[in-house]
Specification:
Layout (H helix, E strand, L loop, with lengths): L1 E6 L8 E6 L2 E7 L25 E3 L5 H4 L11 E4 H14 L7 E4 L5 E3 L2 E7 L8 E7 L2 E5 L10 H9 L7 E5 L12 H14 L4 E4 L5 H14 L2 E5 H10 L13 E4 L2 H9 L3 H8 L2 E2 L11 E4 L2 H7 L11 E4 L9 H12 L3 E4 L8 H11 L3 E5 L22 E3 L2
Parallel strand pairs: 3-4, 4-5, 5-6, 10-11, 11-19, 12-16, 12-17, 13-14, 13-16, 14-15, 17-18
Antiparallel strand pairs: 1-2, 1-20, 2-3, 7-8, 8-9, 9-10
Helix pairs in contact: 2-6, 4-5, 7-8
The structure holds zinc ion (ZN) (2 copies).
Amino acid sequence: MKLTIHRSAHEIGGNCIELACGGSRILLDVGRPLEAPREAKGLMPATLDLDAPLDGVLISHPHQDHYGLLEEAPPHWPVFSGEPTQHLIRLTTGIFGKPLERQFQTWKSGVSQRIGAFAVTPFLTDHSAFDAHMLLIEAGGKRVFYSGDFRMHGRKSALVQRLMENPPPGIDVLLMEGTNIGSDKPCVTESDLEDDFVDLLQETKGRVFVAWSAQNIDRTVTLYRACLKTGRTLVIDLYTAEVLERLAAFGRLPRPGWNGLKVVVTRAFARLYRSKGEGAFVDRMAQHGIAARELVAAPGQWAIMVRPSLMRAFAPAGVVPDADDAWCWSMWRGYLKEKDGAALQVWFDGGAACARHIHTSGHAATADLRAFAAALNPRCLVPIHGVAWDSAPDGFPPIRRLSDGEAAEIA
Ligand SMILES: [Zn+2]
Ligand SMILES: [Zn+2]
């Protein structure tokens, strides 16, 4: 079996990894580099052969840095993923771009299937994306284990623990992410965050605004639970409502219509959905809806999703932060310095609202990476999805460092 990391050997994200065996080849993810400008095209790695046949693009989870170049891949390449991943990718590309015209073949966690010369077994795992998978890939008498992105402090940490207690034997190569190597990002558990949110909701006299990613389902659940415990109502936007509706079949998740959850139907989002032929969805959500102006009265009743587009809808309705309110950035602190984060900061600072940062990383802490690698006990570890692997301390299995585009035989 031959391994080529086309991209992500020395950076976080943009994963594009090829495995080839006996004339068959597959790709593990086809991600967009995180730093690529939104409109940039022609980003496929130059070392990836787009003309030779390919038996499958395997998408580990629905984050752009793992599937974002799917549109640039030849249309006849088959695509494989978990079923919720397919829904989330379609939803995102349908709303924010042009609809994805590809068929997906979906896998089930724990069930092996043959893709070309490869036997592939997906394992559902813990990550800030819903439906993230690790992959065991076997061919030509060799076994590769791909971690995708994962952590051990989210709501699905038991899945990783179980895998570590009963790891697949005889792993030749562990391809493992290392996002948090060399960083001091907080890695507290989601249930600790729930306690922090409960405190914030109880302490705050006015409204609590929270900025978080609609597709970070663990965080939505954390916020919803904190609201239930404190008697507040969680107010989400149409996009977040759609995410929860689409995933309703795949887990017991809060959804529009449930107690303590309201959808704020803003004019801009309603227009966008109607223009995509989704008027019936807007009308259905309006039944569980709340108008922005209703958030002015009884401010202590609300925990409200916020982002710049919502801010623009709230302000004319009189929903403007004041000193009784609090706002919480519940994403990576680095994003706060970018355009959207900075705009929110100015808005809330203008009203003297209390600012908080309550967040935990979507990726494993360094100590957890070490424990995971030790449990998998591979013959060698090939680092990916990290920027500080070369300064990685001891405690990992033997490391084999590859460069982007370098083909390596798995002996
Ligand atoms: Zn990633
Ligand atoms: Zn990810």
